[in-house]
Amino acid sequence: MTVSIGKRRIWGLVAALAAATCAVTGLSGATTSFAAGHITLTEEDYFNTPGQIGALSAYNALFERQHPGVTIKRTYVPFANLDTELLTQAAASDLPNLLATDNPVVSTMIETGQVVPLSSFKGFSAKGYYPAVVDEGLYKGKYYSLPVAGENSVALIYNIAMLKAAGITPPKTWADLVTDAKALTTSSHYGFGLTCEAGEDTTWQWEPFFWGDGGKFTFSNIDGAPGVAAMNLYASLVNDGSASKECLNWSQTPSVSTQFINGTAAMMLNGPWNFPTFNASNMVYGQQFGVAPIPTNSPGQKAVVPLGGEDWMVSKSGGSAAQKMAFQYVEGMQTPAEELNLANQFGYIPARISVAKAFLKAAGPEWTVLVNQTLYAHPRTLGLGVKYPKISQDVWTAIQAVVSGTPVQSALSTAQSQISSILSS
Q: Rounded to two decimals, what is the model's pTM?
């Protein structure tokens, strides 16, 4: 069985990068303790794949060994609930010490005034990262966040055997997608697994269709031709039975990804964080699953994918000692060796340019499409800042309305009114 990056290759790269790291603050050979006593760092995130959970568990255990008297208390919160949970906690000045924040929510968390700038801590550096990634946490000259495991996006992932049995190749246009999804739909599986829950992952999966067909990054023309066409695509897939209306309750991971693994969805839009889980389920790239570019409305168009990933933030909770220790926790993940290790287990592209180059040299062909699409990736909050999460909610609400039977133009007109109000505020 293969893995995203061969075990020998990945650990060889980790060893090489570790040797090149002269000193690792927080995870060096030396240990750090506090005479003041025990420190418990609370942390919240939505990571739920075996690779992500395993990577965090291993890192937490290592950090605790390297820092006697420190305990990491991790809490999992489902993706659709984490943003609300964090904002509620921020309003009560009761955030966890460490926040793994979805990147479009970083600016919103900064606005709460309950997180501290990481650039205020000794040892902080923003050098070497892809600008679009590290600048997510830049506000008034201060950096408030650093990447968790890198960056990601989505592509079309398909079941090779099912497409072969239907005599079709991966769809290149929306028309192909609708036709092929219908041909792939049987009594035992849907042709396409849609994500339509009340959450950001629903907006983010729809964005490549909207943006790639001329939709503006601000969504200011969501009720225009690009929005109508992209929303009609979803309506067609649901109305002809190629996608289930149950998608209203489905997250992209683990809901839809599990259906794909179990063979109840022939195709889906999803991301590389699933590769380790596929491999663990004996699904090998090129044998059981394939990866293709996201279909476009017209031949020759480029799907514009959203730039995904999460960022660590440190809250004001717990006082200066806890804040400094929380920063050491984050800083320890930024070493080249640890970044490469986390990227492989999370299924992400490293956020530091030099590490990403090393990663991609060893990466398998399943990454080719994703890397190429990243050339056209767009940071979701660029030009919108704290307005993006509000706009995104109007977008996913419109998608849910259409899937539930509301006419496309009606749903988009409602969304346009609300979005225009947000943009003008």
A: 0.84
